[in-house]
Design goal:
homodimer; 354 residues; alpha/beta; Quinone Oxidoreductase, Chain A, domain 1; Rossmann fold; 2 domains; globular; NAD (chains A, B); zinc ion binding (chains A, B); EC 1.1.1.47 (chains A, B); carbohydrate metabolism (chains A, B)
Chain lengths: 354, 354
């Protein structure tokens, strides 16, 4: 079968011809429909994550997938059922308390594989196998957009963790701000628009720009961080009750605290490299305490968040989902899907349709 | 009546002779038993908080108090009832949503007075008045230790806010660490000892030292931060599930994140001044995200936390409470109560006994 992967010697995605996988006990075989490309894939290609599957000279890419059950293999799934796979898997031959509890997203470094990212093949192939417990059913009508379930699930988890921090008191938030105008940022901006009175999205682009168009179509305010730094948002616009960071730009973690309104919370999702810089650590600390602020880091998601994400996806307008998909590539020519310029929002590799 | 206060021209606590206050509608008159001294009082004396009561040339000190209702004034309290006052009050002639909801601890800067700290007289006087809603009844048996209710309430709130952040998943913490070996730190160390398997307390003192004696009597491990910095605790001892910071030393806010175990939470309570220093902001951000960590700032407390604190105080051993009180001063000679050296843990000014 055809698969898109990276090899130890290569530095870009390649079309591989490999054997179709056989489902093991408890696994189903899935025929792939579509797989999304995101920033993590570009990092994998650049070699930032490493960790090829044991004994392999290549790793299949892709972790945002939707497919159709081809062989239920006695798992209780039905042939033809549309499913979305989760990402984290037990390391080979091991399990641990996080997987046993159904919360692999809470497993620490080294206690998980991530399909298409570290230690396990991804989904960018004509077929893939997965334990049935990690295949989340989705309606046929959403098959085309099912690749958005994984990124939306990341925000479902982030929101759950962030809002839980404000449970002990009567929190009445009005404003939310998303740092980052990639596809995850724009999906999140729509989600926050359902809950918050006023939303903002921070990027560093000139008009005309397709992401700024989406931001404005969503009724949000675009903030150009080259003109207004994140900690200046309260002065330039208003203080923000919920900050959602999806840039991986380390100063944003600090600036987020200063952009928050009293009693606000910031969710951090980016994963920067080590980077020393000077901060006013006293004011950061002081501001967190005197205004009951909170910073919560969150990574990955689990089955429950995928289920929430499917409900969310159902409510999202088609114009938004269609507008986010800027490239649909064939496996035989994936180059356009890995172009990462300002015209690209979400690229998709399409293996098949329903 | 006698009162201990600071004056605009003075730089140390003075014995003042002032008029006994008259309770307004909804207020009771309380005869003061004991008032504790803490770090905030020293900051008030040094002029760090400012904000004298309007039109006054002095401010009565003290916010950790216990007293007896002298005149219920039709509020429903009973004469002779032992009560502990909360600290935050509505600014003169104003109210706001936070007070209306019973959550004045969530009011932002400028939307509250704090008795004995900013804008309103404290409790270090023979009598004080207070709205009855802010007088929390406590058993007579605890009258002697009632001054500990306010600091314990601060930790009740911090723990509530910190543990709420871990509610979305199955958190199974084992270890807790208190940064700071003052009386608040030691009270908290006992509290955390009831919930966690292993506890640590960080200070910077040589043995013999009365606080290290208390730490060890509590079965906790003393960590000298001059030898083991906070971010080295995981290597020197073990990673910590719950970090509680009560030092106001700004680098501790950053180091706390590195001392945490995966999925851990740090509560920040200290209030440092602005202070620029270099941090590895990339690793800080990365560590928060990849290990689902959280930092939550918390200040003050409200009536519910005072009620929790009274339950907690009831369970605390007398040896601990007696051991923490290192000075009991008379209003006529308060100098020993404001000595702030390594032999002092909690100083008390005693106006009367039951």
């Amino acid at each position: 079968m055809k698969a898109i992967g990276v090899t130890r010697d290569g530095d870009e995605p390649e079309l591989l011809e490999i054997e179709r996988p056989e489902p093991a006990d408890g696994e189903a075989l899935v025929r792939t429909l579509r797989v999304g490309v995101d920033g993590t894939d570009h990092e994998v290609i650049a070699g930032a994550h490493g960790g090829y599957p044991e004994g392999e000279d290549y790793m299949i890419l892709g972790h945002e997938a939707v497919g159709v059950v081809a062989d239920p293999n006695g798992t209780g799934l039905e042939e033809g059922q549309v499913v979305v796979p989760t990402v984290r898997r037990k390391p080979d031959g091991e399990t641990n308390e996080y997987f046993r509890r159904g919360e692999p997203d809470m497993a620490p470094d080294g206690e998980y594989f991530e399909r298409g990212i570290v230690g396990a093949h991804g989904y960018m192939a004509e077929y893939f196998t997965s334990p049935a417990d990690y295949l989340v059913p989705i309606s046929e009508d959403l098959a085309e957009y099912g690749l958005f379930v994984e990124p939306i699930s990341i925000t479902e988890k982030a929101n759950e963790h962030a809002f839980a921090t404000r449970e002990p008191f009567e929190w009445r938030p009005e404003t939310a701000c998303v740092l980052g105008n990639g596809s995850l940022g724009l999906l999140t901006l729509w989600m926050l628009g359902q809950q918050f009175d006023r939303t903002y999205c921070v990027g560093r682009r000139d008009r005309p720009d397709p992401t700024i168009d989406v931001i404005e179509e969503l009724g949000a305010t675009y903030v150009d961080s080259r003109q207004t730094s994140v900690d200046e948002i309260p002065e330039a616009h208003e203080a923000i009750d919920y900050m959602y960071e999806a840039t991986g730009f380390a100063p944003h973690a600090i600036e987020t605290v200063h952009a928050l309104a009293p009693n606000g919370v910031g969710a951090l999702l980016g994963i920067p490299e080590p980077w020393d810089f000077e901060v006013d650590g006293g004011s950061l600390h002081n501001e967190l305490v005197l205004h009951n602020k909170c910073l919560v880091g969150t990574v990955n998601s689990h089955v429950k968040h995928f289920e929430y994400a499917i409900d969310t996806l159902e409510d999202m307008p088609e114009w938004l989902l269609d507008g986010l998909i800027t490239t649909v590539a064939e496996p035989e020519n994936v180059t356009p899907a890995f172009v990462d310029d300002d015209d690209q929002i979400k690229a998709v590799v399409e293996f098949d349709t329903l």
